Amino acid sequence: MTANKPGDPTTLNRLYGRSVGKPLRKGQQALVDTLLPRIAVPVEGPVTAERLFGNDRALHFEIGFGGGEHMAGRADMLPDHGFIGAEPFLNGVAQALVHVDGDNGQSTPLGNVRIQHGDALEVLARIPDGALSFVYLLHPDPWPKARHAKRRMMNDGPLRLIAAKLKLGGEFRFGTDHPVYLRHALMVMRRYCLGPDAVFDWLCESPAQFQNRPGGWPETRYEAKARAQGHEVWYFRYRRR
What we know:
34% of the residues lie in helices and 18% in strands. By secondary structure, it is an alpha/beta fold.
């Protein structure tokens, strides 16, 4: 994530965490070299459905897509929609490209996905207000220490930006298996769901609805790993007012 202007309330100050891990496999590197340039989000200018896909269509945006399992699964379910994913970790981008190229169980490569290797909020800021139908934030880095709370994506600046970019009736989905992040997220979202300035409705009628993965919500590898370790996973859906 690039540095932002001092005092800019819509973004984090910088991206924390790793951007590169173990060396890529030969096939992954080939996809980074050849496929990624063809489906990369433009580095400048507005980010619109017409510019990315050639026509007006419902747009989805995933912040930090990890290995791309959820993004590819949703894109395969909704071939007429457009999907934008941003991920700073190169190894995650490479794995997502494997899915986009046709290794996600779908019959053909996914032509409705565009990828940003880097800053999600920089791209989000270039999307016109009210243009997104869905925004996803699944299993973000919890930064569990209190002094690192400002590094969490579930904070006022990013949430204001998410709210601005969602169309009325659009949906923000959030998932985590970390209890510290859960408490923090619920505290922050309370401000956005209650009171005269509320901009979201929490789509929940019973605990079962946030304790069980909803239909049409593909499992990520981070979720599978959390469950294998015995962690509880929570799922939240918020509708833009």
